[in-house]
From TrEMBL:
Cited Pfam families: Pro_dh
Protein name per its UniProtKB record: Proline dehydrogenase
Cellular component aspect of the GO annotation: mitochondrial matrix
Organism: Salmo trutta
Catalysed reactions, semicolon-separated: L-proline + a quinone = (S)-1-pyrroline-5-carboxylate + a quinol + H(+)
Cofactor(s) it depends on: FAD
């Protein structure tokens, strides 16, 4: 879908997304031609008067302030997002991905370790930009580059704090470290959860919602002993925590707590092997540098969270591909446990096009309830559907995506209603309804009205992209609802990849939105008839 390059001769097409590649190619070719015809200065001026001016707030922290203040005057806040991306060919992106996702142990002895193919890097899907419209993509170069990207996020947090009193800032985990760790930790978390489901099935509790599966403790100990997973003393020690197993049952949250913090990060990456009856490392060895890289990623995340607290900014962790997401969600959860004690600072993102979305939301809400911290969620439909489906089909694992758009809508509303009910019962939950779908916004407003949830409590937020769905954002803001625009910024030439994706997304969006076009034509006619072509609202 996206091929980001510096000149026409270096462009290639995605084998698995030819139509997206073709559309993107045409947009890039048009922009390249425009730059040659008009020159750099005039091209940038034209972009700022048109496409750039519609979807990007400005070039730097100072130039975005007028737009932020104008939006604030109409009750619309900002989620700042520095949208500059690296300019890579597909081959360069694939090489970086393979270099950063394959461990030294795998390079030395490929195929020896018991890795699942979903959680391994595959060259044909190495360029993670393929089939993705709205999400930014980072590729690992080295630790210095991760430090530089952390500094960019820190500056964004600072700018958000200076621009408004209740702002958000968005971050991506893949920008903060080598993605090898996210792949490996995700595989560990999934295998432990799968092992829990196996044990639940042995107790006749399969096919239930995640939190309804409560395993009888004594029966669980017997099952683990029969499987040979640890000796009797080890198994006994696992369940002797302060609250662990005190009710005589173990649920998924209790089970997840067995994967705890250890001094050596690589010690987290152990999995149960039912065949051998042993807890085994995911990889046979980790180098000292790989261990350091894992720790540095966690340290960068911690620095950003502390900076957000200091600047009074809420930090929104973006969702990514399903082979990274279990680790991203777990790391975000750990930040929430630390920093969301007094108010919601850290927000996790839940992709509702995933079959497991409801289980993920309900499990995390229950954990926040038990531990007494503020739950923060951003609900989205998802940005990686085409890529996820193609990868699952070609690599050979279950498609993680809901079967159709209607199923995704049902999942979104199911997750949203669950969080709204939690807010109704416990004012510590918070949710951002990040959607351009008017039906979803209406559904939210109706549920809030039924439950007596006032917008002044600021527990339910709404979010849309800058330049899109203003007919949703501004009426909500003027009616007193907390609503935010996702505000990208950066130099014109460096946000071209972002703008190209906006062109593709907006084209598809406008095709399916007769109401949006009708409102635009109505306003244009009003201005023509009233002589207000250059009309600017007073604020």
């Amino acid at each position: 879908m996206l091929v980001i390059v510096k000149n026409l001769s270096s462009r290639v097409t995605f084998k698995w997304f030819p139509s997206y590649s073709s559309q993107y190619f045409n947009i890039q070719r048009l922009m390249d031609l425009s730059k040659k015809v008009f020159g750099k200065w005039l091209f940038e001026r034209l972009m700022k008067m048109t496409f750039y001016g519609q979807f990007v707030a400005g070039e730097d922290h100072n130039s975005i302030k007028p737009l932020i203040h104008k939006n604030q005057a109409f009750g619309v806040g900002s989620v700042l997002d520095y949208s500059v991306e690296e300019d890579l060919t597909q081959e360069e992106a694939e090489k970086k991905e393979m270099d950063s996702c394959v461990s030294e142990a795998e390079k030395e002895s490929p195929g020896v370790d018991r890795r699942e193919k979903k959680y391994k890097a595959h060259r044909q899907f190495g360029d993670r930009r393929g089939g993705v419209v709205s999400a930014r993509t980072y590729f690992y170069a080295d630790e210095a580059k991760c430090d530089a990207q952390m500094e960019t996020f820190l500056n964004c947090i600072k700018a958000s704090g200076g621009a408004s009193v209740d702002g958000f800032s968005a971050v991506k985990m893949t920008a903060l470290g080598r993605p090898q760790f996210l792949l490996q930790f995700s595989e560990v978390l999934v295998k432990w959860r799968r092992f829990f489901n196996l044990l639940a099935a042995q107790q006749g509790k399969s096919g239930m919602d995640a939190l309804e599966q409560k395993l009888e403790l004594e029966q669980l100990k017997e099952s683990l002993a029969k499987l040979g997973v640890g000796n009797k003393d080890d198994i006994e020690n696992w369940f002797t925590g302060e609250k662990l197993g005190s009710s005589g049952t173990i649920d998924l949250l209790d089970w997840n707590s067995l994967i705890n913090d250890r001094t050596k990060i690589s010690n987290l990456l152990v999995i149960p092997n039912v065949e051998t009856g042993q807890l085994e490392p995911l990889l046979r060895k980790f180098t000292v540098e790989e261990e350091k890289q894992m720790k540095r990623m966690l340290q960068r995340v911690d620095v950003l969270a502390k900076h957000a607290v200091d600047n009074g900014v809420r930090l929104m962790v973006d969702a990514e591909q399903t082979y990274f997401q279990p680790a991203i969600s777990r790391l975000t959860l750990e930040m929430q446990r630390i920093f969301n004690r007094e108010k919601p600072i850290i927000f996790n993102t839940y992709q509702c096009y995933l079959k497991e979305a409801y289980d993920n939301v309900s499990v995390d809400v229950e954990l926040s309830r038990r531990e007494g911290w503020y739950f923060g969620a951003k609900l989205v439909r998802g940005a990686y559907m085409y890529q996820e489906r193609s990868r699952a089909k070609e690599i050979g694992y279950e498609d993680p995506i809901n079967p159709d758009y209607e199923a995704t809508n049902r999942m979104y509303h199911k997750c949203l209603e669950f969080v709204l009910e939690e807010i109704d019962h416990n004012r510590k939950a918070n949710v951002m309804v990040a959607s351009h779908n008017e039906d979803t916004v209406k559904f939210t407003l109706e549920k809030m009205n039924e439950m007596g949830l006032s917008p002044t409590e600021k527990k339910v937020y709404f979010g849309q992209l800058l330049g899109m769905c203003d007919q949703i954002s501004f009426p909500l803001g003027q009616a007193g609802f907390p609503v935010y625009k996702y505000v990208p910024y950066g130099p014109v030439n460096e946000v071209i990849p972002y703008l190209s994706r906006r062109a593709l997304e907006n084209r598809g969006f406008m095709k399916g939105s007769q109401r949006e076009r009708s409102l635009l034509w109505k306003e244009l006619k009003r201005r023509l008839l009233n002589g207000q072509i250059l009309y600017k609202p007073v604020y």
